[in-house]
Design goal:
This protein is α/β, with parallel strands linked by helices. The chain folds into two domains: 198 residues, Glutaconate Coenzyme A-transferase, CATH 3.40.1080; 264 residues, Glutaconate Coenzyme A-transferase (3-Layer(aba) Sandwich). A ten-stranded mixed β-sheet has the order 23-20-19-18-24-27-32-33-34-35, with helices on both faces. The longest helix is centred in the middle third of the chain and has 20 residues.
């Protein structure tokens, strides 16, 4: 069978009601050309319709990939193409989020790591995924079960159940088995062997294809590539998806809206690891002196303390927001050699890109499939993680991003927060318009934010504090004016910034009263100084010892 075909030939095999598994982390390995051509086929013929999409992360960015399809659906007001979606992160596909919010299609949200491992379970012929991730959070059916709207709650195409195993509770995640795979590689030979040498990550591309090909469905797999080579001319070690698993290959135009490495980069060999740039050229830029730097420094101090405790370099994940800026502090302190950073997409080291380019890293030293990276996170092989927060309650529960009318999805947060033995939530103490000056030795709050972030009840529980305590995690909540610790006895204030009034600037700005440590201390004044804190000396002496 000729495998290299035009998109119409391949996509005409997709039937009404199909469950389509789609690769892609923003625009990394997203088959944007196939998604657009599939929708164009529906516009022309009325088929295929009533589709359900299962995405491994977020297959698109604003105006591209699945979001471009969503925009066309909203403009046409024809909702027959898409029945529903299971997407871990909706933040970069706002048109799809709007379809869910307006209850026009079913909307489900599972963590990236859960979906990644679910594909592997389906590929192995199992009915779903069993894991402890999500207990007592928004994914637990006793809370909200990952349903994002009424259509989802009524139809329950994707479900989460509580099961008992070995005397303990776990969650069982199930959804319809995918019957079509739309994935992306770089090069295909004429037989259909697929390589991924120009992609920013390999993600779960192989697992997605395996899931579709597993019994009893034996569906079809279509791969989008940027070039085609002679049959069996690819080096065997470069083949990521073997030809027997691929039905059709479609060559896409090499354009940023169809086949780009990231949202804004068409092709850069440093993002695919083909060229490793000099260290100095990729070091994170210096953070400006201010509140965010104080928080990032306080997290960096904890990480270096772990290096000192373990006597070796540590493996960490730094989330979006202020946690991502910790990398800049580590670079300025010249201690990044002691901290191995990771990106959820499967990358080790380098400087992670931000915004819609997130998921790629420049100068990374290793790359693994995304499900394997989430095994490292969930299993606790990671030494520490720093993640952002929007709301925290008295039980230590965390909501990183959800608000009424705001539905970005949980992304990689739940699995990372679940598995990290040392967990540092980092963010500013209040939200809203504020003026806070960082002087050389202390903090001065000129105008405080009016929005409390330490609240009686978080809008969505994405991290369960009680489960963290039960599992023995060390959990800190770090802000510019106060540091809290989650303990067996409750949520405890352990540090306060110099220049800050405990009652006026902290306690009255919280919707609950924390326990105050008997050993309440002042935050290190070095955090507020313009000079480096001297973390390298601590790290070097610790590792030598």
């Amino acid at each position: 069978m000729r495998k290299v075909v035009d998109p119409g030939t391949a996509l005409s095999r997709v039937r009404d009601g199909s469950v389509i598994a789609v690769s892609g982390f923003n625009m990394i390995a997203t088959p944007a050309y196939l998604l657009l051509k599939l929708y164009e086929l529906y516009e022309e013929t009325g088929h295929p319709g009533d589709l359900f999409i299962v995405a491994e992360t977020c297959p698109g960015t604003p105006g591209k990939g699945l979001d471009a399809v969503g925009r066309k659906i909203l403009e046409s007001r024809d909702y027959g193409f898409l029945r529903g979606v299971l997407i871990p992160y909706y933040g970069w596909v706002p048109s799809i989020a709007r379809l869910v919010e307006e209850n026009l299609i079913e909307g489900y949200n599972w963590p990236i790591g859960v979906v990644s491992h679910w594909f592997r379970e389906i590929a192995a012929g199992r009915p779903g995924l069993i894991t402890s991730v999500g207990l007592d959070t928004m994914f637990d059916p006793r809370v909200s079960g990952g349903y994002l709207n009424e259509l989802a709650r009524n139809r329950r195409t994707c479900r989460v159940e509580v099961v008992s195993i070995a005397g303990g509770e776990m969650l069982f995640y199930t959804c319809l088995r995918p019957t079509v795979a739309l994935v992306r590689g770089t090069t295909a030979d004429e037989e259909g062997n697929i390589s991924m040498e120009h992609e920013g990550a390999v993600l779960n591309v192989l697992s997605i294809v395996q899931a579709v090909k597993s019994s009893p469905s034996k569906g079809i797999a279509v791969a989008q590539v940027k070039r085609v080579a002679r049959a069996r001319s690819l080096k065997p070690r470069e083949v990521y998806v073997p030809a027997p698993l691929i039905d059709y290959v479609v060559k896409a135009p090499e354009a940023v809206e169809y086949h780009s490495q990231t949202d804004s980069v068409l092709y850069d060999p440093t993002l695919s690891g083909e060229v490793v740039p000099p260290t100095e050229s990729i070091r994170a830029s210096k953070l400006p002196h201010g509140v965010r730097k104080v928080v990032a420094r306080r997290v960096a101090l904890e990480l270096i303390n772990l290096v000192a405790e373990f006597g070796r370099p540590i493996l960490v994940n730094l989330g979006i927001g202020i946690p991502a800026e910790v990398a800049s502090v580590l670079s300025e302190e010249d201690v990044d050699e002691f901290i191995y950073t990771t990106v959820e997409s499967g990358l080790f080291g380098g400087v992670a890109l931000t915004g819609p380019d997130f998921g790629a890293s420049r100068g990374f030293f290793a790359l693994i499939p995304m499900a394997d990276m989430f095994s490292i996170y969930e299993g606790g092989a990671l030494d520490a993680a720093s993640l952002g927060f929007m709301q925290v309650d008295s039980h230590g529960n965390v909501n990183p991003a959800f608000l009424p009318g705001r539905m970005p999805g949980a992304g990689g947060f739940p699995v990372i927060a679940f598995g990290a033995p040392n967990l540092y939530f980092a963010g500013e103490f209040t939200a809203g318009e504020r003026v806070i000056e960082v002087l050389d030795t202390h903090l001065e709050i000129v105008k405080d934010g009016e929005v409390a972030k330490f609240v009686k009840k978080v809008h969505k529980i994405v991290y369960s504090g009680s489960r963290g305590v039960e599992r023995g995690q060390r959990v800190y909540y770090i802000t510019e004016r106060a540091v809290f610790k989650l303990t067996q006895s409750g949520f405890e204030l352990i540090e306060i910034a110099p220049g800050v009034d405990l009652e006026k600037d902290i306690l009255t700005k919280m919707e609950f009263e924390p326990r105050i440590s008997r050993k309440l201390r002042e935050m290190d004044r070095k955090l507020f100084d313009r000079k480096p804190m001297g973390l390298r000396e601590i790290a070097v002496n610790s590792v030598r010892r």
